[in-house]
């Protein structure tokens, strides 16, 4: 079972939250540098776990391009009251080529607290990944970190299936009020 990022973070103004969220998603769904990282850490924390992936452990090959299952199962908690939707972004930070987004799913009902492997919740929408495809694009590079970040949003994203990645990430950033992450350090 994964571990959560459960540090205590004070509440911030809406402007600080929006600025921090933009840094989160527009620069690789969590790649943070400089002073913006301090603002990012002020967002409300979500707990993100998985029965199949331990935070800091490997991503089982079943959830990579070497397997056939699709996305790993995820669980999250502590979605703030008043959240209107949840979004998930799966990405990696490739030092040589830059960040790559493998999956974006949004407009998940905020009462939803888990995602089964290889599925998308009823009513949720998938946007385009870095490669332009819609849906989960399994990662392939064995020695990279893969991050599954869950965002609680103050509004629905309201974009269509296959929406452009930059548009989707900006919309998620503008609406983020809380986030949490599960990181796999490599593929088994």
Automatic annotation (TrEMBL):
InterPro entries associated with the record: PEBP (IPR008914), PEBP-like_sf (IPR036610), YbhB_YbcL/LppC-like (IPR005247)
Keywords: Signal
Superkingdom of origin organism: Bacteria
Signal peptide positions on this chain: 1-38
Family the entry assigns: Belongs to the UPF0098 family.
Protein's recorded name: Phospholipid-binding protein, PBP family
């Amino acid at each position: 079972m994964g571990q959560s990022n459960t540090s205590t973070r004070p509440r911030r103004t809406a402007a600080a939250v929006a600025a921090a969220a933009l840094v989160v998603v527009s620069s690789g769904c969590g790649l943070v540098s400089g002073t913006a990282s301090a603002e990012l850490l002020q967002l409300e924390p979500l707990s993100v776990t998985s029965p199949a992936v331990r935070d800091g452990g490997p991503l089982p090959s079943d959830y990579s391009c070497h397997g056939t299952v699709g996305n790993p199962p995820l669980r999250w908690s502590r979605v703030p009251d008043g959240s209107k939707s949840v979004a998930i972004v799966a990405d990696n930070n490739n030092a040589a080529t830059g960040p790559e987004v493998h999956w974006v799913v949004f407009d998940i009902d905020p009462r939803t607290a888990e995602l089964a492997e290889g599925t998308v919740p009823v009513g949720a929408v998938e946007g385009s990944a870095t490669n332009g495809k819609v849906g989960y694009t399994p990662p392939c590079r064995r020695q990279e970190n893969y991050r599954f970040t869950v965002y609680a949003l103050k509004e629905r994203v309201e974009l269509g299936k296959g929406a452009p990645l930059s548009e989707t990430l900006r919309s998620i950033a503008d609406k983020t009020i809380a986030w949490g992450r599960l990181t796999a350090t490599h593929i088994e």
